[in-house]
Design brief:
Elements: H1 2-13, H2 16-34, H3 41-66, H4 74-90, H5 95-120, H6 124-143, E1 148-149, H7 156-163, E2 165-166, E3 169-170, H8 171-189, H9 191-201, H10 203-208, H11 213-239, E4 241-242, H12 250-260, H13 272-291, H14 296-321, H15 326-330, H16 333-346
Helix pairs in contact: 2-13, 3-8, 3-11, 3-12, 3-13, 4-5, 4-6, 4-11, 5-6, 5-11, 7-11, 8-9, 9-11, 12-13, 13-14
């Protein structure tokens, strides 16, 4: 009985999501001791709102990474669709029609990315990097570089999705949790979505098993573009401003959240639950830095430095000991090291 309980406990604590949750708990406890106002309802609401939009981007990046690709245009697509929606609203077009136009533009972006990657065979990095500039450039062209204030042009029914709340919980956060739950269920139980893992693990084997790889790739990039479009529309509803600067650098945060949550950069592994935990960790750390009066100019630097230094130190210590540590497994570097060791042995 004791051995059985130990095995169950070991299995639970070997899960990446549990590890991230414990780190989040540790950060919250330490910060709340140093700064008791950290757990203030207003600050928790601010964290929830911050998690919501960047969390949508992180879900999109998770899909791309599981597929074995990358998506560097999510922030730019959000900015473009936000600007399109705001611009059309300023022209007197019904906001829901404007949203439909933005969704169509997002769909076109996703189809373009998917087609260039699957049919033409271009690397995802190149295609999405190009789209990052195309979409952001389109946002600048429409606005001529200046933010468009849409105050007074947006109906309350539209703004409610980003500014309203249910039992004190922001609707925006509820939307994020709902989409995360849907993505989790589909990736876990849908055969079509499981094909994303098969393609990411071994594309050639997936083709031989009868999976339509091109269809899977196009489907993933269309889904990512639509999620980014939703993020752009919700940002417009929240801030009342359509700016071409929206979500600059969002890709870095999204990738970090996905990798921290257990999604590997090599494809075929990962999940939404870990990504949700990852984005919570990043945003809570960011909030903790704010509460401790760390300059806003240092926040991105500190977060990036912590991530890079932690992984680097752990990786170097693994090379000396020859055994993967908990942090090594946490960032998915144990498999990378094992593969390199195998290659050296074969050579």
């Amino acid at each position: 009985m004791k051995n059985k309980m130990m095995k169950i406990g070991k299995k639970i604590f070997s899960q990446r999501e549990v590890t991230v949750f414990l780190i989040i708990l540790l950060v919250v406890i330490i910060t709340s001791i140093i700064q008791p106002k950290f757990l203030n309802p207003n600050n928790m609401r601010s964290v929830a709102l911050s998690v919501s939009v960047d969390g949508l981007f992180a879900i999109g990046l998770t899909l791309a990474l599981i597929l074995g690709g990358i998506e560097l245009s999510v922030g730019s697509v959000a900015a473009m669709t936000c600007v399109i929606t705001g611009y059309l609203a300023l022209q007197g077009i019904d906001i829901w029609v404007a949203c439909a136009a933005s969704i169509i533009s997002g769909l076109i972006v996703g189809l373009f990315n998917g087609f260039m990657i699957s049919k033409i065979g271009l690397p995802p990095f190149i295609v999405t990097l190009g789209m990052e500039n195309l979409a952001r450039g389109m946002a600048y062209i429409i606005t001529t570089g200046s933010p468009l204030s849409v105050s007074g042009y947006l109906p309350n029914s539209f703004r409610y999705f980003a500014t309203g709340s249910i039992f004190g919980i922001p609707i925006l956060f509820v939307i994020f949790i709902a989409i995360s739950t849907i993505a989790f269920i589909f990736l876990k139980y849908s055969k079509a979505c499981r094909n994303i893992y098969y393609v990411g693990s071994n594309e050639n084997a997936a083709k031989l098993s009868g999976i339509n790889v091109d269809k899977v790739k196009i489907g993933v990039y269309v889904t990512i573009a639509l999620i980014s479009t939703l993020a752009g529309i919700l940002s417009l509803a929240r801030f009342n401003v359509a700016t071409p600067e929206l979500s600059k650098g969002a890709e870095t945060t999204a990738i970090s959240a996905a990798v921290i949550g257990g999604t590997t950069m090599t494809g075929g592994s990962g999940g939404v639950l870990g990504t949700v935990m990852g984005i919570f960790l990043l945003k809570i750390v960011n909030s903790a830095l704010v509460m401790m009066n760390v300059s806003v100019y240092w926040q991105d630097f500190v977060q990036g430095a912590i991530l890079v230094l932690a992984v680097t130190i752990d990786y170097l210590s693994h090379r000396r000991s020859g055994r993967p540590s908990l942090l090594m497994k946490f960032f998915g570097l144990d498999k990378l090291a094992a593969a390199r060791s195998k290659n050296k042995t074969n050579s």
